[in-house]
Structure to design on (110 residues):
């Protein structure tokens, strides 16, 4: 993950999957047991339930409109506050911008 930024949102990240082990938590993917392929663009949300901490991962294309709206609010419309954004290639940065600011999400799972 990226270096610490004082205004970064602490509970969310975008990154490339380092392995193909994590399952997508989107309902359809979860029902089918679909994993996030190594190198695929993914969105993570940090969860803490009781004393257990974990990341919940989704393909970027599986992030819901409600999650996008919350993310947009959380980053105060400044993509530099989104952890991992600066590490993405230009095409994937464009996908993130389109998803957050133009509400265009590709259902493609990469």
């Amino acid at each position: 993950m990226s270096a610490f930024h004082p205004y970064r949102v602490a509970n969310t990240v975008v990154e490339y999957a380092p392995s193909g082990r994590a399952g997508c938590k989107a309902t359809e993917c979860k029902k089918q047991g679909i994993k996030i392929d190594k190198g695929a663009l993914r969105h993570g949300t940090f969860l803490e339930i009781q004393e257990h901490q974990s990341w919940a991962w989704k393909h970027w294309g599986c992030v819901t409109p409600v999650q996008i709206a919350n993310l947009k609010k959380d980053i105060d419309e400044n993509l530099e506050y989104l952890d991992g954004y600066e590490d993405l290639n230009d095409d994937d940065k464009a996908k993130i911008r389109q998803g957050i600011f133009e509400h265009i999400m590709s259902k493609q799972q990469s």
